[in-house]
Design brief:
This protein is of the alpha/beta class. It has helices at residues 12-25, 37-47, 65-76, 91-97, 116-127, 135-143, 155-165, 170-177, 181-194, 202-215; strands spanning 3-8, 28-34, 51-55, 81-86, 105-109, 131-133. It folds into two domains: 3-134, 3-Layer(aba) Sandwich (Rossmann fold), CATH 3.40.50.2300; 145-215, Arc Repressor Mutant, subunit A (Orthogonal Bundle), CATH 1.10.10.10. The protein is built from ten helices and six strands; from the N terminus they run βαβαβαβαβαβααααα. Helix 2 runs parallel beside helix 3 (65-76), helix 7 (155-165) crosses helix 10 (202-215) and helix 8 (170-177) crosses helix 9. The radius of gyration is 17 Å and the shape is globular. The mean pLDDT is 88.
């Protein structure tokens, strides 16, 4: 099934670059392009896309319109996934974006949109109800952690949780860490236990674990 995407960015060249990257994925199509928050919200209401990919700064104020749009879309169209793009690693914006939950949300750096593997993984992950965060942003979030249940995790468990935050599945995590997929699942089960997550479906627990990871240092 083709994934229907709306792209929002007030810079034409950047917007065209995002559209070209999406076209190269092969299993996604751009159904609308927008240059402001208001245009984006109108397009979402009219077209009901699967995913929105939006710049974090757009008219009218060029501050946090992407975050505000993501919140509005989550409230009015909960089945629509949103990926916010930024030029900068800004943990405060990440925390604000995920403040009300992390399901169907992503945060990527614009410089990495051309990495088709990362872009494709982010799109598929948020479409499936998960979250996807640029590795550089994950590193920045880790650097500012304060005391939290996350402190009970071992170094390897933190590595696994960081890769879950990037949107990786168990097979990809195992390949990155050079360990068996069953070992990855064992680490994940331990993470869930240490974070006192209930016996929900795995996707929901992964989302909740990522949210705890993101907000631990806020």
């Amino acid at each position: 099934m083709t994934i229907r995407i709306i792209v929002a960015d007030d810079h034409l060249l950047m917007r065209q670059g995002i559209v070209a990257a999406i076209a190269a994925l092969g299993d996604a199509e751009v159904v609308a392009q927008c240059s402001s928050k208001d245009e984006l919200l109108d397009a979402v209401a009219e077209l009901s896309p699967d995913v929105v990919i939006t710049d974090i700064r757009m008219p009218p104020t060029h501050t946090d319109e992407g975050v505000a749009a993501a919140r509005a879309i989550r409230a009015d169209h909960p089945t629509v996934a949103v990926i916010v793009l930024s030029h900068h690693v800004d943990p405060d914006y990440v925390a604000a974006l995920f403040d009300a939950g992390s399901d169907r949300l992503g945060y990527l750096l614009k410089e990495n949109v051309g990495d088709l593997d990362q872009l494709g993984r982010a799109i598929s992950t948020v479409c499936a109800g998960g979250s996807s965060i640029d590795p550089e942003v994950v590193d920045a979030m880790v650097a500012r952690k304060s005391s939290s249940p996350i402190d009970d995790l071992t170094g390897r468990e933190r590595e696994v949780l960081a890769l879950i935050a990037e949107g990786m599945n168990n097979a990809a995590i195992g390949e990155r860490l050079v360990i068996a997929e069953k070992s990855v699942q064992k680490h994940i089960n331990t993470i869930f236990s240490k974070l006192h997550l209930t016996e929900e479906v795995d996707t929901h627990r992964r989302v909740r674990a990522v949210r705890m990871w993101l907000t631990a240092g806020s």
